[in-house]
Recover the amino acids of this structure.
DNA sequence: TAAATTTTCCGTAGATCAACCGTATTTTAA
DNA sequence: TTAAAATACGGTTGATCTACGGAAAATTTA
């Protein structure tokens, strides 16, 4: 189940080769890359890697090696705390993390916040949901942002007007927060949502 | 089952090593890192950490240590298609998968469906969301289920009455589906939700 | 405080495995 | 039909892991 150092080197070589050429190396190419004097050595590595599930070997076919797509499909991002809980994000040193599907994550760095309150309920964002946030300092009109106003962290839809910034909740019982530019600090953009029942 | 200071140091060393190299250190490497004069010392730490559940040891294999913290915390489940799209689940042979945080997944097998339509909008389930479903054949009252009625797959809240089954949407503009027991087949329970913006 | 227990360490002997080599045989593909 | 490529052995060596027994130091318990 576990790789040794040399086994990982061999696997990495094969993986790289496939990435660059679109087909796997022959056993002889592997042999000469590592300077083995016998093909048996290559065979042994193929056997180990195959048994461990790191490699597929289309038996008896030439260049039939295929690294198992053990590609990272998810990533750990820090769960920094609650949004709309009145606590600035930086204050939290908790090192909790949460696993997130990579397709949610584009470029840039990300973090997660637990949603508290009903202010975005009409957008389908419920109290208790985990919001996946991309670090950002400004936003486009209409985007859902994490913003800090008067030392409170909130999740709202963002609109920049001529002389003010409006943060719209998605809840008919609540009113937009309207502040001057400098009183509102954007901390990130909502890129995903995870809910557990 | 608490760790002593030294035990934590050893565990941290192993964890860091695995994170950086992709394989675990040998016992000898651990020995020399901490300056032990005997491998037996390392053995004792491995034993203690293993018994406490902080470490897995793939016995008799070289570099076979795996800290629990590095273990997989997400899993691939099949994305079978759309719910509320009029297509029975089994018909779909698509092999798409999606990566899901394990904390959503309890016992049993799971699959994912893409939500179509607005029927659960008041529960915060929007069209386009990915619903994480646990395979099941029956449900408790009030649970959100995947059910097949008249060859249509739908996501609704489930209520079993004396002589009928009611499938409640969460949308004021829609009415409950009311059918006899045998006309409604339950295919799974909603356990999680994933949304990308 | 004294006794019991646990943790931490040492050393050695023996078992197992990884990492090689070499040769012979089978299969694939041009 | 052949050369290239892939399998199938068997065997060697050193690295690595396991199993013990013992003993000092630190902690816990009585």
């Amino acid at each position: 189940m576990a790789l040794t150092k040399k086994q990982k080197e061999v696997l990495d070589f094969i993986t790289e080769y496939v990435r660059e050429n679109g087909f796997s190396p022959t056993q002889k190419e592997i042999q000469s890359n590592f300077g083995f004097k016998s093909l048996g050595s290559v065979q042994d590595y193929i056997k180990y890697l195959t048994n461990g599930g790191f490699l597929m070997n289309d038996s008896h076919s030439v260049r039939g090696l295929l690294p198992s797509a053990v590609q990272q499909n998810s990533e750990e991002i820090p769960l920094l705390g609650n949004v709309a809980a009145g606590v600035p994000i930086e204050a939290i040193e908790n090192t909790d993390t949460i696993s997130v599907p990579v397709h949610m994550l584009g470029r840039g760095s990300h973090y997660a916040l637990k949603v508290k309150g009903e202010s975005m309920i009409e957008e389908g964002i419920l109290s208790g949901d985990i919001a996946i946030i991309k670090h950002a300092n400004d936003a486009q009109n209409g985007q859902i942002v994490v913003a800090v106003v008067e030392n409170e962290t909130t999740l709202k839809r963002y609109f920049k007007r001529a002389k003010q910034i409006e943060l719209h909740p998605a809840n008919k019982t609540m009113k937009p927060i309207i502040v001057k530019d400098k009183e509102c600090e954007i901390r990130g953009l909502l890129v995903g949502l995870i809910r557990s029942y």
About this structure: The two ends of chain B are 42 Å apart (CA to CA). The helical segments of chain B are 5-21, 27-34, 39-51. Residues 26-28, 39-40, 43, 59-64 of chain B lie near DNA strand D (CB under 10 Å from a C1'). Chain B is about 20% helix and 35% strand.
